[in-house]
Amino acid sequence: MIWKVASIAAVIAAVTGPALAQDSGSITATPSLSVVPAPAIAGPILKTPQEAGIDPNINKRIDNTLKDAGAIPADPPDRAYGAFQRGFFLTAFALALQNAKNEDAKAQTLLGELLTRGLGVRQDEKEAAGWYELAAKNGDPEAQYALARFYLDGRGVEKDPARAATYLEQASRNGQPDALRELAYLLLEGKGREKNPLLAAAYLRRAADAGDMDSQYALAGLFMEGVGVAQSEASAARWYASAARNGHTGAQIEYAIMLFNGRGIDKDEAVAARWFRQAAESDNPVAQIRLAKLLAEGRGVEKNETDAVRWYRQARKKGIRDDDLEALSLTLSLQRPESLSEDDDSQADRAAGQ
């Protein structure tokens, strides 16, 4: 039994929470905020600090002293983002709009996010693109990345891979790991920039070193095929292992295949089976099929045809079939109807959850 890992084209294709509370109602993209007049206060008009003989910088000096002592934060809290995190999207929009008018890049990015997703306001991707562009010009890497995605997908703007690449380059220089990965994909495919596998591999390496599991998975694929790097199954296995440990299901499968076949790493069917099981428990049908085969044959695990059929039926429900496992499923249904019924989906579901 020899299994193959995915091609680099498949790698690129593969990698390309509810709110706690919500304000009632929604507002348009550019609301008109009314100014509430200050209440009338009885009493004499106060003198300015200078007229009263007070140092006009006293408040600033007090604030700086408190900041140095750690009594108050050095930077004021971002109330707009705080409201967004708690699900008060209408409030977040209103607060962010006020800050955005003062060239606050983070606030401009937040407005773009709210408009993109239609949270608290009417969804408007064209308006969102406008706010992202302002924030991008003000140096916010998240806005630069979001705007790049808009130009790649043609959302709110006309599709333009070249402009997308420009914004990805800006976001990459500002340390946005997703931008490094997406820019690498463009360079591998020759979209928006001239094809450059060497530079693509370098970008993926930077993102992979930063812990991005999709980049680790893609970089492993480059090492498998020798694209932009010297071909090395050992390096591929190491990067698949890193991505697998970070929870990348595809990497768990590829790493398990390499372990099972002993390619780039010492052969270990038992460890391979454990990685197949972990991916299978994430409801991946490919992993479920492969785990079922191991259980049916007793490779890396104790032979258990009943569990093999249960895992196979989980995969089959997602449209994947295997002639040998199908025959085993039929045989066990006839021989052991009391332990494994064709219609007993609850047993299969329990097996998948173990």
At a glance:
The chain has 354 residues and is mainly α. The protein is 61% helix and 0% strand.
Q: What oligomeric assembly is this protein in?
A: single chain
Sheet-strand content, in percent, reads under 5%
Let me know the average pLDDT. 83
The number of strands is 0
- The CATH superfamily label of the domain at 1-14 and 78-195 reads Tetratricopeptide repeat domain
CATH topology of the domain at 1-14 and 78-195: Serine Threonine Protein Phosphatase 5, Tetratricopeptide repeat
Write the layout of secondary structure elements.
Layout: H1 8-15, H2 58-68, H3 79-85, H4 89-100, H5 105-117, H6 125-137, H7 141-153, H8 161-173, H9 177-189, H10 197-209, H11 213-225, H12 233-245, H13 249-261, H14 269-281, H15 285-297, H16 305-316, H17 323-335, H18 345-353
Protein described:
61% of the residues lie in helices and 0% in strands. It is mostly helical and 354 residues long. Among the domains are: 1-14 and 78-195, Serine Threonine Protein Phosphatase 5, Tetratricopeptide repeat, CATH 1.25.40; 268-354, no CATH class. 42% of the residues are buried.
Keywords:
single chain, 354 residues, mainly alpha, Serine Threonine Protein Phosphatase 5, Tetratricopeptide repeat, 18 helices, 0% strand, disordered C terminus
